[in-house]
Amino acid sequence: MSTTTTRAIGTFAFRPLDPLADGELVHSWVTHPKAAFWLMGDHSVADVQREYMAIAAHEHHDAFIGLHDGEPAFLMERYDPAKVELVGLYQARPGDVGMHFLVAPTDTPLHGFTRAVITAVMAELFRDPATERVVVEPDVRNEAVHALNAAVGFEIVERIAKPEKDAYLSVCTREQFLAAVGAAR
C-alpha cells in the first residue's frame, strides 16, 4: 500500500477492497444520489458485494478503498481496458490502464478534496512503470468529472456508445499528468 501526502489535505493511501467487509460502506457510497453516474442506486448491499466479489475474482480488474488520514474516503477501480469495460470500443495500447473513482459522500466537504483524490489516484496508477496512459469513460453528462479529468491532464479523444451510457473516452499520459499537476502547484 502506498501513500501520498498533500500539505493542505492530508495523507492518502490505498488498500484492496474486501467485498464482504466493505460491502455496507461501499453500498452507502454507490447508492447515494451524488453517485448517480455509477448506476447502482437501486442495488442492495448483497448486490454491491456480488459486484465487488466479481471484480476481486477478475484477472484484469481490481478495486481499492482509498483512505484519507487512515479513514475510508473514496473508491478506486483499476482495469485493463483491452480486456474489460472498453473491449472493442477503442484501440487499446500497451500500457493503457482504465480507472474509475468515487469520493464518498460527506456532510462536511473539504475544499479541494475531490481534486486531491483524483491526483492521488493518478499518482498511484502511474507508480507502476508499465502504466503509459490512464483511460476513462465518464458519462457525457457528468460535467463535474470532465472538469476534474481536465485538471489532471485528461484529453477527450472521442464520444463512444457503451451499453449503459454515452461516454467521453479520455486519456492521460504520464507526461500530461505531470504537466497538469506541476502547473497546479
Sketch the major β-sheet. 8 strands, mixed
Proportion of residues in β-strands: 25-35%
Range of helix content: 25-40%
Which sequence of SSEs, written as H and E, runs from N to C? EEHHEEEHEHEEH
Please give the radius of gyration in angstroms.
16 Å
Low-pLDDT stretches: none
Mean pLDDT: 91
Strand order of the largest sheet: 1-2-3-4-5-6-8-7
Shape: globular
- Kindly report the oligomeric state of this protein: single chain
First and last CA, distance: 25 Å
Please explain how this structure is put together.
The protein is of the alpha+beta class and 185 residues long. The chain has helices at 23-30, 45-57, 113-126, 143-151, 174-184, and strands at 3-6, 10-16, 61-68, 71-79, 96-103, 133-136, 155-162, 165-173. It has an eight-stranded mixed sheet, sandwiched between helices. A hairpin with a 2-residue loop joins β3 and β4. α1 packs across α2. The radius of gyration is 16 Å and the shape is globular. The chain starts with a strand and ends with a helix.
